[in-house]
Amino acid sequence: MAGSTFGNRISITTWGESHGAALGVVIDGFPAGLKLCAADIQMYLDRRKPGQSKFTTARAEGDEVEILSGVFEGRTTGTPISLMVRNNDQHSKDYGDIATTYRPGHADFGFHEKFGFRDYRGGGRSSGRETIGRVAAGAICAKLLRELGIEVFAYTKSIGDITISDFELGYRDQNPLAMPDSKAADDAAEYLAACMLNNDSAGGVIECVITGVPAGIGDPVFDKLDAKLAQAVVSIGAVKGVEIGDGFKASKNVGSLNNDEFEMNCEKVVKATNHSGGILGGISDGDDIILRAAIKPTPSISKMQHTVNEAGEEVDIEIHGRHDPIIVPRAVVVVEAMCAITVCDALLGHMTDRVEYIKEFYKN
Amino acid sequence: MAGSTFGNRISITTWGESHGAALGVVIDGFPAGLKLCAADIQMYLDRRKPGQSKFTTARAEGDEVEILSGVFEGRTTGTPISLMVRNNDQHSKDYGDIATTYRPGHADFGFHEKFGFRDYRGGGRSSGRETIGRVAAGAICAKLLRELGIEVFAYTKSIGDITISDFELGYRDQNPLAMPDSKAADDAAEYLAACMLNNDSAGGVIECVITGVPAGIGDPVFDKLDAKLAQAVVSIGAVKGVEIGDGFKASKNVGSLNNDEFEMNCEKVVKATNHSGGILGGISDGDDIILRAAIKPTPSISKMQHTVNEAGEEVDIEIHGRHDPIIVPRAVVVVEAMCAITVCDALLGHMTDRVEYIKEFYKN
Amino acid sequence: MAGSTFGNRISITTWGESHGAALGVVIDGFPAGLKLCAADIQMYLDRRKPGQSKFTTARAEGDEVEILSGVFEGRTTGTPISLMVRNNDQHSKDYGDIATTYRPGHADFGFHEKFGFRDYRGGGRSSGRETIGRVAAGAICAKLLRELGIEVFAYTKSIGDITISDFELGYRDQNPLAMPDSKAADDAAEYLAACMLNNDSAGGVIECVITGVPAGIGDPVFDKLDAKLAQAVVSIGAVKGVEIGDGFKASKNVGSLNNDEFEMNCEKVVKATNHSGGILGGISDGDDIILRAAIKPTPSISKMQHTVNEAGEEVDIEIHGRHDPIIVPRAVVVVEAMCAITVCDALLGHMTDRVEYIKEFYKN
Amino acid sequence: MAGSTFGNRISITTWGESHGAALGVVIDGFPAGLKLCAADIQMYLDRRKPGQSKFTTARAEGDEVEILSGVFEGRTTGTPISLMVRNNDQHSKDYGDIATTYRPGHADFGFHEKFGFRDYRGGGRSSGRETIGRVAAGAICAKLLRELGIEVFAYTKSIGDITISDFELGYRDQNPLAMPDSKAADDAAEYLAACMLNNDSAGGVIECVITGVPAGIGDPVFDKLDAKLAQAVVSIGAVKGVEIGDGFKASKNVGSLNNDEFEMNCEKVVKATNHSGGILGGISDGDDIILRAAIKPTPSISKMQHTVNEAGEEVDIEIHGRHDPIIVPRAVVVVEAMCAITVCDALLGHMTDRVEYIKEFYKN
Questions:
Q1: Side-chain half-sphere exposure of C361, counting CA atoms within 13 A
Q2: Which residues neighbour C355 within 8 Å (Cβ) at sequence distance 6 or greater?
Q3: Which of A109, B8, C279, D227 gives the lowest tally of CB atoms within 10 Å of its CB?
Q4: Which residues contact C173 (CB under 8 A, 6 or more apart)?
């Protein structure tokens, strides 16, 4: 496996470059019988679509999804679902220096060393457009999860130093920064405007909450639910850290305060607190799953930077063109997508965990 | 795959429970021809062995490794390396309440929900002893890496609120807390003593540095080098967060300061700073790889805690017995091991990245 | 994994249904730097294209391939290669009984039991058109193999009772049955004409030869080179058996005659005979790799057949429409493709088999 | 993956060499709650144990299995089951020429080319003893299958030219050749005695029947049930071919006779005949699954053979020592084991094939 495939039971394989003909994803192992139409997927893609505010690139892409296989008479068939989005607005410009210069903060140098050359147009495969396939696949997994009573939602928790103090999910979709707190969103917009004036960029933190996951989901050892979520989220470009529950704060706590006590509630085992973030020993504990991803500032800035080109010469570079001054708001739906895929995959895994389940299933 | 296997080319499969007959690991895909003897592995196992200071459990285990296969005349053969450690000090005690009570902060409840019952002796498979297989496999990968000029070393960065301010690697192995700073180690020992007096436990942060990794290592998209490192590290029990390079701090920075400029040094492309932590776009950039793992306080404490048992009754529990008041120092070598395995696997992957490499290899 | 992906290092994922919008394949892990254009792939697709003789279905499909990603400036980039073929000639006919009736010899009943419903149009995912993705991927692997001096070629060995007795590879592409023996091809054509007159169909055997594979390729145990070839070939619809080297005949031989003696030839170890078919203990022995696949007669026949429908009623059915009276000739290139993919994957694997190779690779 | 692991949900990893310390297997993903003790496994191992008749090697091995993990209070726990068999009778003899000479018909040369050197003692990893892990894992899968009403049984179908004409399963275990036909067993014994007198060896065909598998099992495309069975069976050393149902004979048939008509029986869809061998389009059709494996003659013979040594010199060799004059009878249980593992894995896969199954499972 060369890393473009994720998931054990539901496995998704993404493909496509920023300025190639198209991008897409193949979802294998998705169960048969889910009602599905392009609109279900488009809804998610529209949330990551560029050009929706002054804080996102002006690249004009409709990002319209086409279902190429795996759906028949409005339902998934159990066979691979192939989804494609054509690239339309590939400026066939002269890439000039960019073609041979390693942009700071980007994968240019790494790709060159790895493959010997690289598709320099818009970052090629390392572009944020690669996430189109993830979001499309995530939309389908999220739809299945909703039918099981599981909701996945993410939002911007902080931008630069500005952190939400209020929480009103409804507000998330009413501001271009995906913050569920109007005051913080206003402050962040101001901070971002200053960054942009300065030809600079900003970063932030995305939080994702998954409700309704029953206890007992996840595989011990290497495929712990949090370990797979960590891989899923860190695999999104620009993510530099991930936390589950109290995360790094837990490292400063003592056991008696960090442990969540169990208690009974309506004949169900529940936890009195949720420092664990819904996962203990890699297995869901029935509580809300909570994680956070740290996103670095967009590396593409129009400020002058010092770097090196393929010929081994030191050069200065200004990256002009269409770049988001912040990746965070558009990455919110990508985090949601990756979490939905990961949880969906783990849920399927649990169905074969006990001999009694298997005997019950095959009893007829 | 049910989660006990990790790695694409070199894949390790661990097995064993805390109080079962033995624990071990099978390493498949390890290349032939590495000089290897039990002492190479024992050296690493001894670093995680219990009973070495007042800050670790008094359980008396020699943790002596036996090489069962894959080594012939002192060299690896290319076939699976099977390693085993017998459990000796399984107190055949009466587990009493523990057997049917869900310990707060532990995986007991999750395992019960997942599998319908559980090996309650010392946490069974979710015990820290599961890491024996990881450390044994990591020792072998680390040995191969050293032959390629790559060093992996981890240390305790902080315990509770006490963070190292000095760095002298040699000191790491001279104090029971694996801190490379004598002043911090003393302060932390004092803090821990207080926790223990209070029947409580503590957490901390482990930092791992990997030097000598060439640029171009790692797979784009889901198996990015940092994504696999994140999975590897978060899969260690008690880890609640992971950061690469500046991590969460990067989210507060601006692009112009977070980007690392490239420059030439002795005809090599190098970076002037290392905010990236040695990985850009999921691919190594030639700089030191730096990551941090947040470890929660040991959940087993002798303080009274409220919880629930399998019968659905609320009960109080005091967990006596042999528990580490802090997991961090013994987990240092586990983090090292997981990083060594991950990097080793990625290094092998790069060898087939280019047609020119393949033609060169098969030219004769 | 749900079975639409094949290969460890180079992994291919196929998607698409007979009468869906399109079919295709994503090839992940293919090395960077191979010169590649659509014509390289089209050449192979044209060999399996329908409508080329009276012995193949009249369905009019150009099967024109589009490269959607993974190729830049005429070379593979190392990132996923996505290939697509649009379906054009999907007769939007009334499927009538076929939609709800289980055709004998087809996967209809199995798909229904597995997924609860099925895309009944032309067999959906179980159609022979699914092999388009395999052939497209195989074309690329075959091109890489040729650059390493490895040739993969298959041909029709027998149709019904008529077996080739002569061998002239050039003749294979000059008759519609892909037989490298003109006399046998004429006889087989006559036999097939009789079958068709009788509203019946025929089967046959395909032989594949792979030359130039060095000794030492393949993984011991479950991924033996012959085991993976067996999976690859039996995974082609309608294949009911596979043999390597002497195959079933070897079971009647004695050891002294079945063993191939080794000898020296120009300072190379070679075998005096090739009963093994180029593979011993699952690893290539340096000789030609030889395998045969048994193909059953096309199950779709216009002769009246007795069967059952989804309502559980016994019914009679005549399958009219566009069906090949024999699958063999068009499957020849599919066998070639699957063998090329399997060998390519195994060749890459060998590059990391020895520590000395790794040290040599990373010595700079 | 380097080929020592097999299976998607239940995955088994074998390890060990002929003359190493031990051999074994780790079974991951096996569901929790199956009653299991060593005797369940020993029963299968005893069927492949050496030294039970004059037709098997005199090597004296008890092949006693030890359960090292994954079983608690007599039931599987859902965590990895680790099984080990110690090697006792490793004659620490002088291997003399064997150590540096490539035995005809063996993997010696391939291993040397692959890994640069090899464990020459008894074939090392390519020894038939490698199958111990397979049989141990197969025993556990077979036990689970029996609880679901599925039986897997294999037997010797032919030895040399002598094929069974009668079938009485009970007789299989009453003759050393595992033939369910007393007349054929007697004839085969005579044939074998002649081979042995001549310092030669023989081959044969094993047939395996799997009853009770419901329709709908298996994954379309590359992991078709027959494709995985083919890989599983061909991965057993010495297997040179595999057939499902009519196999190669089907290639000579016409569609109208090879197709199995469906009919109703007690409100169940059944087939009137079983040319398909229970699998259509890679998915079980509800009928008995039938396959055959061709086993070559034992390559180790004491007759003089011409070959080459590591120094590149042509030499003559006589292989004395403890070798089976025929592999077939002891391989019968290995074929059974591999089929049990493959079917078990596929059965689990089906449980997540439909959204309705998932909703039913998680409805509470």
A1: 24
A2: B31, B32, B33, B34, B76, B144, B147
A3: B8
A4: none
Give chain B's length. 364
- Read off the pLDDT of residues B47-93 as tens digits, 9 standing for 90 and up: 988 777 777 776 677 899 999 999 999 999 999 999 999 998 766 56
Residue D125 in marked binding region: yes
Q: Is D11 annotated as a binding residue?
A: no
D334 band by pLDDT with thresholds 50, 70 and 90: very high
CATH of D7-361, one of 2.60.120.1440, 3.60.150.10, 3.30.70.3190, 3.40.50.1760: 3.60.150.10
Q: Which residues of chain B does A2 touch, with a Cβ-Cβ cutoff of 8 Å?
A: 219, 223, 349
- Nearest chain C Cα distance for residue D362, angstroms: 18
Task: Report the distance separating Cα D328 and Cα D295, nearest Å.
Answer: 7
Rounded to whole angstroms, how far apart are CA atoms C277 and C245? Answer: 3
- Amino acid at residue number B182: S
Closest CA to A228 of A338, A353, A327, A102: A338
Distance of CA D196 to the CA centre of its chain: 24
Per-residue pLDDT of C111-121, as tens digits, reads 999 999 999 98
Angle CA(A250)–CA(A256)–CA(A260) in degrees, nearest 5?
70
Based on the number of CB atoms within 10 Å of its own CB, is A310 exposed (0-12), middle (13-18) or buried (19 or more)?
Answer: middle
DSSP state of B355: H
Q: Which residue of D8, D31, D353 is in closest CB contact with A354?
A: D31
- Determine the pLDDT at residue C49: 83
Give C4's contacts in chain A (Cβ within 8 Å): 26, 28, 79-80
What is the sign of the dihedral through the CA atoms of D326, D328, D329 and D333? positive
Give the dihedral of Cα atoms A57, A58, A62, A63; nearest 10 deg: -20
- Decide if A349 touches C, using CB distance below 8 A: no
- Cα separation, B262 vs D322, in Å, equals 65
Query: What residue has token string 């002569």?
Result: C166
The fold for domain B5-361 equals Chorismate synthase, AroC fold (3.60.150)
D308-313 average pLDDT score: 95
Put simply, whether C87 touches A (Cβ < 8 Å) is no
pLDDT at D93: 65
CA–CA separation, A284 and C33 (whole Å)? 44
Closest-CA residue of B relative to D27 is B15
Task: Indicate yes or no: CB of A16 within 8 angstroms of CB of C69.
Answer: yes
Query: Does residue A4 sit at the B interface (CB-CB below 8 Å)?
Result: yes
Q: What's the pLDDT tens digit per position in D40-90?
A: 999 999 998 877 777 777 667 789 999 999 999 999 999 999 999 999 876
Kind and range of the H or E run holding B12:
strand B11-16
If you count them, how many residues does chain C have?
364
Query: How large is the angle between the packed helices D225-234 and C225-234, nearest 10 degrees?
Result: 160
**Is B258 in contact with A296 (CB distance < 8 Å)?**
yes
C-alpha span between B13 and B4 (Å, rounded): 5
Give the chain B residue nearest C360 (alpha carbons): B148
Is C220 annotated for ligand binding?
no
Q: Does D322 or B162 have the greater pLDDT score?
A: B162
Interface confidence (ipTM) of the complex: 0.97
